[in-house]
Write a structure and sequence with these properties.
Order of helices and strands: EEEHEHEEEHEHEHEHEHHEHHH
Number of helices: 11
CATH class: Alpha Beta
Strand content: 15-25%
Helix content: 25-40%
Shape: globular
Radius of gyration: 19 Å
Amino acid sequence: MQRRQLGATGPLVSAIGLGCMGMSNAYGPADRDESIATIHAAMDAGVTLLDTGDFYGMGHNELLISEAIKGRRDEVQLSVKFGGMRDADGAFVGFDTRPQAVANFLAYSLQRLGTDYVDVYRPARLDPSVPIEETIGGIKEQIDKGRVKHIGLSEVGAETIRRAHAVHPIVDLQIEYGLLERGVEREILQTTRELGIGITAYGVLSRGLISSTPLTIGDSDWRGHTPRFQGDNLERNRQLVQKLNEIANSKGVTVAQLAIAWVKERGEDVVPLVGTTKRARLSEAVEAVDVTFSERELREIEAVVPVGAAAGTRYAAEQMALLDSER
């Protein structure tokens, strides 16, 4: 497995990471045993970066990861998002990133994960009621106590990145980045590169849109509530994926491998996070690490899916309004 450093001051991680959210029923029912087996297979393949959030499955995801990495903690880096608050029905009811909340959320995560430190700790979203300097200061206190190794950010804009980085070095920004979502290229990517901050890119397969098999969305799948997966938008996006499929076939790779490799090839500072719950899909993703492109192939891909080609926003309107990265 190839390795990449997260930012100028961060850890050395695998060239792709494993996003674990889907293992806690975010896209419908997930098989517990297969999820654990997938994490084991990822580790065996040299994938070291595991990404989670303390609100994924309301703690379920961290407990699952804890079981999977038992006895192998030193083989992985744990990237944890915090701050999202949910009620008993699972609905999000806001964000809390005060320093007191940082200490509280982290204490619960350490307990669930069965570890005494987190490699990268990050607020899941910008809390509009708390200056980012206070949040980063709260995480820095946990670094001083040995409970956190590095600080990351998630879905924030250039100004917030600069303010956070002035308090303590930020090692990476987690943000959606892929063939169908390239908003990061407008301003944010330039800022992270100026400051020596890496990118951990989620959504590289557009939440399952980019696949060689037709996507089906069940009633419990939250993707059905997002514009990109609705009506004419979904049909338009499927047509884009079909064109990518044709390019992938001519190259002798799957369309998923093409999409993962495209993100990986955006720069040595970019680490794609691949969310999967099955070992077969994991193997496909791992093989994508070795895929490269000629200039001609890149131009061909760009012609098929230029910036802004995807129909519909990546989140519903109320969620888009919470994204500092979209302001």
